[in-house]
Design brief:
single chain, alpha+beta, Immunoglobulin-like, TIM Barrel, eight-stranded parallel barrel, elongated
Length: 705
């Protein structure tokens, strides 16, 4: 009997075709060919455009036959392609009527939103061919990476210490000494450093494909180009940035990033990605048409009744994330990174946008946030929200969490900074922040690990600049110092910027140590900014988004120059890792529920058991009972922390211990190195067990054992 082929093969210009499968979207390798699938609800027709890699003109343009359209999805299998050496895009033919939300233009070749590799910016900073008819080129990826037995680490959130870094900035400086500076491979070479520091999670600023030449322009009074350095302007959500890979020019960025993740996991370090689903690189109506606008503008973006772009992101457009199509794309993207790259968690830039409806109003139960919270593939991934957006929606403490979401705690940052510089009326707020912000999270049943605690991040002053500048100094950005935040809660300690005055320099060092000490004894999840541990400065610039130069590159010479600061950071991190009482899963109850004779946390001032909560107070102390660690399931030492942000020294009476235990000194920022801090386990006994002098603007940490 003759075999009947129920899927007859078509031929177009010598290419054999067959109707494809609508799912998954994107380009998928199948036996003998490639399945191409793309969605558009308003286009009249679609054409697949195939290039030989880097060729200026297409090798073929294949119109989708009508029978290859299933609903609003165009899908085709093209057989016998040299898939390692092709690039592909689409032309969409439909109405051009911006007032109605349609921007179809058949003259433009459009990037597949699901492209797994994107060419066109293969080597960082290499000027592109602006006459290229297809600037950002989709390529095919195939998975043959050997993960061996690797899997996400699933470190309990309360046990994490996050290190926020920029891939290029971390090793680009000549002093890094790595073989491949500014790349994923460069980070691999610095893993021993990360382990010495003691962090167990790195959070990478955007690694999705973006165009560093977007909005590029000459630096004021210089021929140097200002670039899109930070990368918060996504071109393709599924593709790693080629320019961050030493192998990017060979199209091997997928394997290079996977190798980094695999090696970090072997060394006990998780990997978080900073993801930007609030907007894209296409900007407003004056921006370029790269992908979404030309494929289905009305579906992918939030539009006003007149067809303009809502701009809750501050960058020109806003993705319509609660549209079912866009919501599915976000889910598909994160599932892809979690499954194919073994990513441990995601930090969502301007996440409040993800909770807005198509007209910008906040939703009570945003479907995207709910879908992410309950997705089975993302079930073990950490989800972290930057719980505000550029449209004024501020949701710290009220972000729709569905029992899963943590938050960048901007109120922690603000509270610590104000207390650090000696503002009045801050001790009550400090008590909340040190406990993991129960005033924000306990009422909703959310634990301390909901709070991602930080003093500095990429967006703002570094820690050195926080204690060195009263005002931002952003003129080199070319925006007349109008960009960047004006409310920094910083204090220059007596001189603006660089000084040789030793007293001021000593105070600045003490203030930085105070900040890291308070951060590491706070309940919640601490996050530190790349380079703060060695005193990195951005010369007072609090918005370095456009600088690919030493303003952003980490100068590793600082490690020797500020060795005492690094040592202090390292020991503070080790102390936190050594003491589970600092890393509780549940909020304190302020009672003794294990029969130790002490409540889980008690508050003190210059007098033991008598904290000064008055508005003029600038002193606060607390004691943690180690028998209550992890809700009493593990045993730990007692920890006492005294904080004096007054400009005068004060005598602090210390609560007494039982069972023959004595207080030992772990850290005292008011004394000179090396007595300012001790390696955990080697702390000397405090001579006077009844009290001690805490110097002006100083923090003391004692351990009772």
């Amino acid at each position: 009997m003759e075999r009947i082929d129920i899927h007859p093969t078509h031929t177009y210009d010598k290419f054999k075709l067959r109707r494809g499968r609508p799912f998954p979207f994107g380009a998928t390798l199948i036996p003998g060919g490639v399945n191409f699938s793309i969605f558009s609800s308003y286009t009249k027709s679609c054409t697949l455009v195939l290039f030989k890699k880097r060729a200026p003109e297409p090798m073929v343009e294949i119109p989708f036959p009508d029978e290859f359209r299933i609903g609003n999805v165009f899908c085709v299998v093209v057989f016998d392609l040299d898939y390692e050496n092709i690039e592909y895009g689409y032309r969409m033919d439909g109405p051009f009527n911006p007032k109605e939300g349609h921007w179809f233009d058949n003259s433009k070749i459009l990037l597949d939103p699901y492209a797994k590799i994107i060419g066109g910016r293969d080597v960082w900073g290499t000027p592109p061919n602006w006459n290229d008819i297809y600037q950002h080129r989709a390529r095919l990826a195939f998975d043959d990476f050997d993960w061996e037995d690797d899997r996400p680490l699933e470190i309990p959130p309360e046990d994490q210490i996050i290190y926020e870094m920029h891939v290029r900035g971390f090793t680009r400086h000549i002093s890094s000494g790595v073989k491949h500076p500014g790349t994923f491979a460069g980070i691999r070479e610095k893993i021993p450093y990360l382990k010495e520091l003691g962090v167990n999670c790195i959070e990478l600023m955007p690694v999705y494909e973006f165009d560093e030449f977007e909005n590029s322009r000459p630096k004021p009074e210089s021929e140097e180009l200002l670039l899109n350095y930070w990368g918060y302007s996504t071109v393709g959500f599924f593709a790693p940035k080629a320019g961050y890979a030493t192998t990017g020019k060979f199209g091997m960025q997928v394997d290079e990033l996977k190798a980094l993740v695999k090696t970090l996991h072997k060394n006990g370090i998780e990997v978080f990605l900073d993801v930007v689903f609030n907007h894209t690189a296409e900007g407003n109506e004056h921006g370029p048409t790269i992908s979404f606008r030309g494929i289905d503008n009305k579906t992918y973006y939030m539009l006003t009744p007149d067809g303009y772009y809502y701009n809750f992101s501050g960058t020109g457009n806003t993705l319509n994330c609660n549209n079912p199509i866009v919501r599915s794309m976000v889910l598909d993207c994160l599932r892809y990174w979690a499954s194919e790259y073994h990513i441990d968690g995601f930090r969502f830039d301007l996440a409040s946008i993800l909770g807005r409806d198509p007209w910008g109003a906040p939703l009570a139960n945003p479907p995207l946030l709910e879908s992410l919270a309950f997705d089975p593939i993302l079930a073990k991934c950490k989800l972290i929200a930057e719980a505000w957006d550029a449209g004024g929606l501020y949701q710290v403490g009220s972000f729709p969490a569905f029992g899963r979401w943590a938050e960048w705690n901007g109120k922690y940052r603000d509270g610590i900074r104000k207390f650090l510089k000696g503002d009045a009326g801050r001790v009550g707020d400090m008590a909340q922040r040190l406990q993991g912000s129960p005033d924000l999270y306990a009422g909703a049943g959310r634990g301390p690990a909901t709070s991602i605690n930080f003093v500095t991040t990429h967006d703002g002053f570094t820690l050195t600049d926080l204690v060195s500048y009263n005002e931002k100094h952003n003129k080199v950005n070319g925006e007349n110092n109008n960009d960047g935040c004006n409310d920094n809660d910083s204090w220059n300690c007596g001189a603006e910027g660089w000084t040789e005055e030793q007293g001021i320099l000593t105070l600045r060092q003490r203030q930085m140590k105070n900040a890291i000490a308070m951060l590491m004894v706070s309940q919640g999840v601490p996050m530190i900014l790349m380079g703060d541990e060695m005193g990195r400065s951005q010369c007072g610039n609090n918005n370095t988004y456009c600088h690919d130069n030493e303003l952003n590159w980490l100068d590793w010479n600082l490690l020797e120059l500020n060795a005492n600061l690094f040592r202090f950071f390292k020991h503070c991190i080790a102390f936190r890792n050594a003491h589970p009482v600092l890393r509780n899963q549940y909020h304190f109850r302020n009672v003794d529920y294990v029969g130790s004779g002490y409540a889980d946390i008690t508050w003190h001032g210059t007098q033991a058991w008598n904290a000064d909560w008055s508005p003029h107070s600038r002193t606060l102390a607390f004691m943690l009972c180690g028998k209550h660690a992890k809700k009493g399931t593990v045993q730990d030492n007692y920890i006492y922390v005294a904080m004096n942000m007054h400009h005068r020294a004060h005598w602090f009476e210390i609560p007494g211990l039982r069972d023959g235990m004595r207080w030992h000194v772990f850290a005292n920022t008011g004394v000179t190195p090396p007595e300012d801090i001790w390696q955990p386990g080697t702390e000397p006994i405090l001579k006077n067990q009844s009290g001690l002098i805490v110097g002006d603007r100083s923090v003391v940490i004692l351990v009772g054992k």
